[in-house]
Design brief:
alpha+beta; 2 helices; 18% helix
Length: 200
Amino acid sequence: MRARGLVLSTLFLLSVPLVAQQRGGAPAAPPMTMTVAGFPDGGAIPVKYSQAAPGVAAGEGLSPAITWTNVPAGTQSFVLNMHDMDVARNKTTDDQAHWIVWNIPATATGLPEGVPKGAQLADGAYQLSATGQMYRGPGAPATGPQHHYMFEVFALDIKLDVTPSSGNDAAFESRANVMKAMQGHILGKAVYGGLFKRPQ
């Protein structure tokens, strides 16, 4: 009796994936992936992609080339959010806005190195950072620990009806508006991280 119970249990366990596969239909699509050129995921960000600043060891302020793959079906636009996870802005959960780019066309497979300044890119996407209408490179001071910079790309099923805010907090207000408008429309997400502090 016990042996029969074990056989039945084993048959049940073996049949579960088969039933799940039949119910689910086609196999799940591979997850969205992202690559940032010049450094491995979790590695050190090259100085040339850091902030250009007078009087300190700094880079060229170039944005790195970014690519993404395995875009979900039905994608209508992309949002890119780069932020410094180690900055608590104004004693809140808000961190540093290094680059928010939204309404990137669904046909895009990435962003090139050295995206030019300007509120709106040639493809119609908007961009902002705490520095202005541009990419803001990493700039953690040489005297402190390395900071964690995260690049996130979201695939959305809509194009966002969000225009850039103006004023001193434009990047933070715009980012908040973009994040709010995205809710319920995210089809996929990919993340890539890097570490940086200025050279001595």
